[in-house]
Write a structure and sequence with these properties.
Layout (H helix, E strand, L loop, with lengths): L2 H38 L6 H12 L5 H25 L4 E5 L5 H9 L4 E5 L2 H9 L5 E8 L3 E2 L1 H9 L3 E9 L3 E4 L10 E4 L1 H6 L1 H7 L2 E4 L3 H11 L4 E5 L1 H7 L2 E4 L9 E8 L10 E8 L5 H11 L4 E8 L7 E8 L5 H13 E10 L3 E2 L1
Parallel strand pairs: 1-2, 1-3, 5-16, 7-8, 7-9
Antiparallel strand pairs: 3-4, 3-11, 5-11, 6-9, 6-10, 12-14, 12-15, 13-14
Helix pairs in contact: 1-3, 2-3, 11-12
Amino acid sequence: MSNKLEEARMIINEVDAQMAELFVKRMRAAEMVCEHKMEYGLPILDQKREDAVIERNSALVEDNVLKEYYIDYLKHLMSVSRAYQYRLQSGLKVAYSGVEGAFAHIAAGRIFPEGNRVSYSDFKAAYDSVVKGESDVAVLPIENSYAGEVGQTIDLLFSGGLFINGIYELEIHQNLLGLPDATVDDIKKVTSHPQALSQCHDYIKLRGFEAEESTNTALAAKTVAEMKDRSLGAIASVETAEIYGLKVIEANINKSGENTTRFAVLSKVKASSPSLSSTVMMFTVKHEAGSLANAIGIIGKYGYNMTALRSRPMKKHSWQYYFYVEIDGTTDTENGVKMLEELNKVCDCLKVAGTFAPHTEI
């Protein structure tokens, strides 16, 4: 064996031993990252962060040929780190409202692939489970592009103490589901949630189906599976068909292709991350002329662009309203602190409800 080969192998063995030690050290740090993400209800994958790390670290390798391989190495290392964090995340309890196969169930699974999804009967029960410590986070809908805001969730955000640590967009595709041996000609009646029936009104009318309302789309699919009636169909998701052993007879039957629901991840603690670049604020204004205009003016004065502004009636006070606002940017900056100080002067109640990354699709 040549001295050069022996020398090379000695170097490799030495480096491998160092890399093994550093690998363990890095994975212990990944455990800390995972603990932080679980506490704040953040997803494991943070693509912006990974891209920044790759860009920064690859600049340390001057050889352009080796740099390409080093980038591949970093990507694989991050993939291994994510896989380990997903394994650690398996103990995370994720509350949602509805039954298995409901869109909230699907959203929770896509945000937290290894989390333990726990079903609750309604939004408040899911929300309260986090408050009580039964669950770590809750995934609740806050808005649908077809039906508008989900008032129950917005009200819980205003009155409760949980924070938004992410908002995720789930594109909704409605499908005609039936028994495995059913065809579209067999279907005489369809059942689903009223909103799903409304979204598919044109299709139902075209086919001449009778429509029957159900509590939600997943329950409708479960009913079809249990009834074993080929003339009965459900309108629901592909995932729901798989859960209940049904067949997708016709896909994407909703009237509008633009049907997206935004789901918020709620936690006891407020997250702070460079990837969370937008903010949710909620406030009431004094009963004085121009109070709302003053509040909006203050937000604009400090360079914040409002992407959403909605009013909601206050449950305990007739004809009084609170306001829900989404802005580009966070409030932990010098301008943000000054903005909040001024807003407090014109608002009876003001809370920063959380931060999120805009237009994050799942």
